Amino acid sequence: MAIGRTFAVAAVVALNLTALVASTGAQTSQSSRPESVEEFYRGKQIRLVVGSDAGGGYDAYGRLVAAYMGKYIPGNPSFIVQNMAGAGSLIATNHVANVAAKDGTVIGAIHPDAVTAPLFRSDKAKYDPRKFVWLGSPVSITYTVTVWHTAPIQTFDELFSKELIVAASGGESTVLPLLANGVLGTKFKVITGYKSASAGFLAIERGEAQGNGGDALNALKSVHGDRLRDGTVRIIAAYGMKPNPELAGVPRVLDYAKTPEQREALSLVFSTDDFGWPYIMAGEVPADRARALQAAFEKAMTDKDLLADAAKRRLDISPVRAEEQAKLVVDTFNTRAEVVDKVKRMIGE
Fold first, then answer.
1. pTM value > 0.85
2. Is the distance from CB of 108 to CB of 195 less than 8 angstroms?
C-alpha cells in the first residue's frame, strides 16, 4: 500500500511539473515574441518637432499633419507639436538626429535647407541626411523674392544696380539671397538674426527691412494672403528648378545664369525646393515602425477631412513622397566637391 501511495504522489508531482514546464514555456514564448507596431504605439504619444516658431507656415502644416496622421498609424497614438525654432531648423534637426528618442515617437518637420547643411556647415550640422527615415512632405515648395510696396526696388532687374534690405531668419531666407549675390551679382543686403519668418515679416512691416530674399509661396499665401491680394507685398522673382504655374510672368532667378558653371552652382541649392518641407525620423528607428509611419503619412495626405481642413486654412497640399526625397538627397550629396566649395564661399559658411 505504501508503494502504491508513493507511485500516486510521484504521478501527481510529475503532472504538476509537466504543467509548470508547459506554462513556463508558453510564457517564455509569449514574452520573446517581438512587440508589434500596433502594440508599441497603443497609448503612446508622438512628438512632432517643428523647426520654426509658432504662427508661421511650417507650424500650420505641422499642426495639420498632427491632427490627422495618428488615425493611420497602428495603435492610433496621439500627437503633440513642439516648436523648436532657430538656425534654419538646424537646432530641430540636430535634436531629432542626436538627442531625441530613436524609437519612432519623435518626428521632425524641418526646412529643406537643413538637408544640405552638412555640405556647408559640417561643424554645426551633426548628422547625415542620407541616414534619415524620410516620411515625405505635405507640400512642394517654390521660394520667392518679395518686396514691400514702398521698397525702392520693385523688379528683380533693379537688384543688379540697387540695394534691397531683406530680413532673414536662417534657411532659405539667408542662403538664397547670398547665393544670388555670389553667383549673379545681385545686391541683396541680408539682415540676419530674426527668430522666424513671422519675426522677419514684422520687421518689414515696421520698416526695418524692405523685403524677403527667400520666402515660401505656400507660407505667404496661408499666412499673409491678404497682403498679396491687396498688393502690400509683391513677388518679384521665383527660385527653384521648375516653373510654378501660379507665378506666370514672374521671372525665374535660374534664368539669369549666364554660364553652365553659374547654373550648376544655383542648381545645387535650388534643388532643395524638390524636398518640399521634409518630415523625418532618426535612422535608428526600427524598420517596421518606420514603414508604418511612412505609410501613415502618405495616407494622411489623401484624407478627405485633412484636405477640407487644409482648404479652410488656405494650405496647399501637393505631397512629395518619401522615396523621392531619399533619392534626391543621395543625388545632392554626390555633387562635385569643387561646386560645393564654391557655393560654400558664396553663402559665407
1. no
2. no
Q: Where in the chain is the domain with CATH 3.40.190.10?
A: 143-272
Give the closest residue to 264 by CA, choosing from 342, 187, 330.
342
With beta carbons less than 8 A apart as the criterion, state whether 285 and 133 touch.
yes
Q: Which CATH number fits domain 143-272: 3.30.70.260, 3.20.20.370, 3.40.190.10, 1.20.1740.10?
A: 3.40.190.10
pLDDT for the residue numbered 28: 47
Look at the block and give the residue holding cell 558664396: 346
Q: How far apart are CA 144 and CA 176, in angstroms?
A: 9
CB 57 within 8 Å of CB 218: yes
Q: Where are the beta strands (DSSP E) in 93-249?
A: 106-109, 133-136, 143-148, 164-167, 188-191, 211-216, 233-238
Report the percent of the chain where pLDDT is more than 70. Answer: 90
Residue (of 314, 295, 56, 49) closest to 197 by Cα position: 56
Grid cell, residue 55, equals 504662427
Q: Using CA atoms, how far apart are residues 281 and 101, in angstroms rounded to an integer? A: 10
Alpha helices of the chain — where are they, by DSSP H?
2-32, 37-41, 57-68, 90-94, 113-120, 172-184, 197-206, 217-230, 260-270, 287-300, 304-312, 322-332, 337-346
Select from 140, 205, 215 the least CA-distant residue to 173.
215
Instruction: Please list the alpha-helical segments (H only) found in 37-161.
Output: 37-41, 57-68, 90-94, 113-120
The sheet carrying 233-238 orders its strands as: 188-191, 164-167, 211-216, 143-148, 233-238
Classify strands 188-191 and 106-109 as parallel, antiparallel or unpaired: unpaired
Buried b (16+ CB within 10 A) or exposed e, 115-132: bbbbbbbeeebebebeeb
Question: How many C-beta neighbours within 10 Å does residue 196 have?
Answer: 21
Which numeric CATH code is attached to 39-140+276-340? 3.40.190.150
User: How far apart are alpha carbons 84 and 51 in whole angstroms?
Assistant: 5
Q: How confident is the model at residue 34 (pLDDT cuts 50, 70, 90)?
A: confident
pLDDT tens, position by position, 298-324:
999 999 999 999 999 888 899 999 999
